[in-house]
Amino acid sequence: MLPGSILQQLSDAHRLPSASAADSSPSGRQPLSFGVYYKNTLVALCHALEDAILQADYQPLMITAFQRGKWYLEEAERYGEIADRARQVVIMAAAEAGFAEHPTSQKANVDLVSLAATDPVAQEWHLIILSPNYTAMVLCQELSAADYGAVGQPKADLERKFYGFWTFEPGLVLETAKLAAAHVGQYNPELQQQLTTQVQEIAAHIEREEALCGLPTTEHLGEVVSRVVDYLQTRHQGMTPVYPVATNPLDSNLISNELQAFLRVAQLMDQADLSNPMAAAEVANLAEAMGQLLDLPAWQVHRLRLAGMLHRIAFLSSSSLLSSGTSVQEHAESPDKPLACPLVPGIQVLRRMQRLRAIATILTHQTEWWNGSGQPAGLAGDEIPLESRILALLISFQQRLAALRRANSAQPLEDMLTQALEDCRTQQGERWDPKLIEALSLLVSAFQQGFNLPESFPKIASGLWLMDSHAQEALPLIYTSEQLNLKG
């Protein structure tokens, strides 16, 4: 990272003291998850995040860095529309002909900051959107010639690579907006003061409970994520192939960012739940351990882990629930079949990404009961997908364990594990598969003997490895309870 750049300053603020340090720094800041992004991915991603401003009355403060004025000029018309819906728009770029003369640049709430050629921010691509009800950010820095190595810099503009990350997390967006305002101050101290005042005002609103930026819903972040997926898919469909289909890195980069969109919402939902802020990470790790204990194939273990990480998205709230007369079945594939299961808004968001088809089915049926009295389809016993049975049990176990930790943090962990297990055991044969209760008992025994699971949320920017080789297939019902192979 370039010294003095905004990305480098933020990275340093979140750098852990040592490799053996805890998952968060002494200040409570989480380490950042960086990845490499192609320009074509960033264009689609930024357009999706920006267009949320045009779809709702967020009236945000928006700060951007375009590297060069010519890149801003390509976006200036749409930025004029955004400025009409924004509180203020600040654009940083190395000035070029026409940079300051475009009509958008003349708007009262648009400020241009002409970066010096030696300014490290002139090598960065930033989009910072800050409001009480919507926060989003892309923070990237273009790779240098040395970074490209022996392969050399790409000839096609859309293949240029950038290092950084993107997020919806309000705290990170606020922190970065302050760094950006300070950088603007090197060129325009008066504008810096104006930005600082606005950031402080927005920060005060964000701290209020009703601020939507920390409360994911289907109408709010669900719609934004759907737009991200749609734009990335459209970008993919419109690309001119430059690599063999099977090894196309541009394709993989787009798919990775579709998955990142869901993982970032899942992480935000965890952070918003102060009573159980590690639910997704803990359930994912428990699910992986359970899959290994049951000797499931590696692709199915990956699927379980990903379902655990995304399980909270199924419970995204909605103030305008979809009609209970429609169904989660693949009606488009079988239009003559009657619709039986009610649509779950959060799961419908997941279904926008074809490769999450199996995950959506797992989450749909996590509320089924072993005795057939659950929802949404009233499935019983081995009719319930195995992954749904596993995930539902582990979610309940983790929630019970978290509640015990809150109630009495001084209680020995061994006792809490035993109590959480016994609470689940009381519903064996009714809600839970008895064979899975047996497997959970073995896991609890391992924990009581010192076996530990990592609790940190995985590195989101490299989450593509979580996609299994059967990702786009319909969910198979492979194992009956009697066929499960317990290790140990």
From TrEMBL:
InterPro entries: CHASE6_C, Cyclic_di-GMP/3'3'-cGAMP_PDE, DICT_dom, HD/PDEase_dom. Residues 157-238 form the C-terminal domain. Pfam families: CHASE6_C, DICT, HD_5. Residues 27-142 form the DICT domain. It comes from the Bacteria. PANTHER family: CYCLIC DI-GMP PHOSPHODIESTERASE TM_0186, CYCLIC DI-GMP PHOSPHODIESTERASE TM_0186-RELATED. This is Metal-dependent phosphohydrolase. It comes from Leptolyngbya sp. NK1-12. The lineage of its organism: Bacteria, Bacillati, Cyanobacteriota, Cyanophyceae, Leptolyngbyales.
